[in-house]
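Next comes a concrete protein, fold included:
___
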Amino acid sequence: MSQLNHTASPPRTGGRTYSIATLVTDPLQYDAMKQSFAEFGFAESEFLCIDNTGQDQICAYRGLNQLLNQATGDVVILCHQDVRLFDDGRETLEACLDNLEQHHPTWAVAGNAGGVAPGQLALRITDPHGADQTVGALPEEVRAVDENFIVVRRDARIGFSQDLSGFHFYGADICMMAAMAGYTAHVINFHLAHLSAGKKDTSFDAMEAEFCKKWNRALNARWIQTTCSLVYLSGAPLKRMAGELIQRPLAKLSKHGPQAAGWK
């Protein structure tokens, strides 16, 4: 069974504190990852992991939520076991986050790769697709981040969907969760190596369908009845206009219906 392991962080000495959290299926890969972080300024950080080496693995959505709940750092780095720091270190990450704080104070998620718009990516990464890749005017706001390296501002109190599972699309999911809470996501100019090119296994298409199904449902137009108001929400302009036209008369009628005892 998956088990959460924890390396305690030392007392805070000033500046941001970091928690570095990983789902582990290969302990040797994980040890090499930790060593690279230690060599590039994160030796005093809190390291958290879930042992996923057995057959009974916890999925990314559940496991990373557990790690976010366990983390005590100001910033939580959710990363794959096969990322390596070799160019940029803690000072560079601090500068990137300082820049976000100054120019994008509602940031909650940052990464080294992500999607900006249809056909448009933002990248700062070395991986099997290419060395020293830089794409976009970084930092660049994105709609989704790649899962290899996800930086989360802990005080934003965001996490992953409870009604999704698996190991795909969770980078897009946490960006959606951030957006729903009023936060933004960005790809930053922080260069590391990801040893894997990524893969689309047999579960990818099914997970994509579940991701779309969940968020289509979550973003459907709807009536919201509060204890003192009735409002109509829709992102589609025509639907929103239609809802606004009937919102006031419908709100009045709703207070006289057979189930409106609470209004009295």
User: Anything to note?
Assistant: Helices lie at 27-42, 60-70, 90-103, 170-180, 204-218, 237-254. Confidence is low (pLDDT under 50) at residues 9-13, 259-264.
